[in-house]
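From the pipeline queue, job 12 of 40. The input is one protein chain; the requested action is below.

Action: predict structure.
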Amino acid sequence: MLITERQKDALTELVNIAFGRTAASLSDLTGQRVILGTPQVDIRPIDGMRDALCGLTCDELATVHQIFTGPMAGDALLVLDYESAAHLVQLLLQGRVVVQPLAASGREVLAEVGNIVLNACLGMFGNLLQVTVSFSVPRVHQEDLETLLSSLVIGEEELCYALVVRMDFHLSESAVAGYLIIVLGVTSLERLMQAIENWASTQEGEPAGTGSS
């Protein structure tokens, strides 16, 4: 599925707005200033995900996974390589404890970060579509890249695409890179892209639905 530059720009702007809210929530949670860098947004078919995740530095990953259901349904994940997850946890805990990212305290921190990031983006998309999106409890996993790629399936028959967002957490003069992945069936994605197109039109003062699709 190809998207226009207009749609990509609008999608990037919306994700950036959601990231601003995410950063504010993380700052409140940790008591320190957290900034999320400008996102790099792309849409890929599932079979193109390996190239999309080329920025991961190793196969050992820490992921936060949430399933969302409703008129828009799919899988959402926050993906970090293991070392980046460990560094992010240390930064968010301000070095108070030495912790492995998937030990109990580290898992709790990662789950909360993933919950905040994923809910901010999915909540915004749900508002655009004027639908209610329900979320599962976030689950933290340690897995390799092959396991992650094989898990990105909604249904056996529906063609799937992924919204891939490269993101950077900035805090304590350090930066940690990761990915936000939202996997959608083609029907949900088409509905979302039309809603984004309509939103872009209203931002530009055009009648909704008159832009390119």
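Job complete. Strands lie at 35-36, 40-45, 60-69, 74-81, 134-135, 139-144, 160-171, 174-185.
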